[in-house]
Amino acid sequence: MSAWAVRSGSDLPQRAERQILQYRDSTWAEVEDVVASEYALTIYVNDNELATIVCTPTNIEELVVGFMASEGIIQSADQIEDLTVSRFMGTARVKTKHQVTFNQAFYNKRYIASCCGKGRQSFYFHNDAVTAKHVDDDVHLEPNQVFSLLDAMDEEATLFHETGGVHMAALCRPDELLLARTDIGRHNALDKIFGNVLMSGISLAGTVISFSGRISSEVLLKVAKIGVGIVIARSAPTALAIDMADELGITAVGFVRGKSFNVYTHPWRMQR
């Protein structure tokens, strides 16, 4: 566990109710629908504004820690002296034990949206090259474990089943799900996993990431920064994600549907 104390209130609602007009089976009706909440969180590091993240307002401390580690600002939770979250103000104020230089290119202030696109990260950014690790873990999966892990993640996806508007990520061992996190931003869900790992000291040896969406290059980079050797997902990887997975030693498994899946890189981790 980290040595510092978090001071914050309880999580904000993950969902909201809205009256909508629905068309179904040739009939119009006014009904109440459940939608995912969206929350803007501004992170300050040593009184300097770092970024604003649009997220689901749960596990905010994990998100902040994971995001800072992913950006290369910290390497461990022990480098944080204090973390204070004001859910009412929408701020997270972090004090680090070391000096953070914000005039470097990879610490430039930027706005980070919850949607996909060019606004998030590129492997060619300096901090990505520094923080994306080559993964040598020899974790192996059997086919039935691939299906079981994604099924276990789906069982935790309460907010997705209610709203259809969030992503899920889970940290697993071959025979068990360790923790799952939800967010409107696919990157945020992975940062929450990363933050929990750093704050709790969970060993990453022999672990797997399961993911609800497609494996984009940004998602693949997050997995590399966390340091996990296998990522499994319901959807497809992109060509750039496959290239990165091959280079970084990560086994990318996609299109896990029914009783089939595709292994795109490093198939030696799959038991055949």
From TrEMBL:
Keywords: Cytoplasm, Molybdenum cofactor biosynthesis
Location of the protein in the cell: Cytoplasm
Record flagged with keyword DNA damage: no
Pfam families referenced in this protein's UniProt entry, alphabetically: FdhD-NarQ
Record carries keyword Cytoplasm: yes
Highest taxon of source: Bacteria
Main location: cytoplasm
UniProt-annotated catalytic positions: C116
Function: Required for formate dehydrogenase (FDH) activity. Acts as a sulfur carrier protein that transfers sulfur from IscS to the molybdenum cofactor prior to its insertion into FDH.
Entry similarity comment: Belongs to the FdhD family.
Name listed for the protein in its UniProt record: Sulfur carrier protein FdhD
Source organism per UniProt: Alicyclobacillus dauci
Gene name per UniProt: fdhD
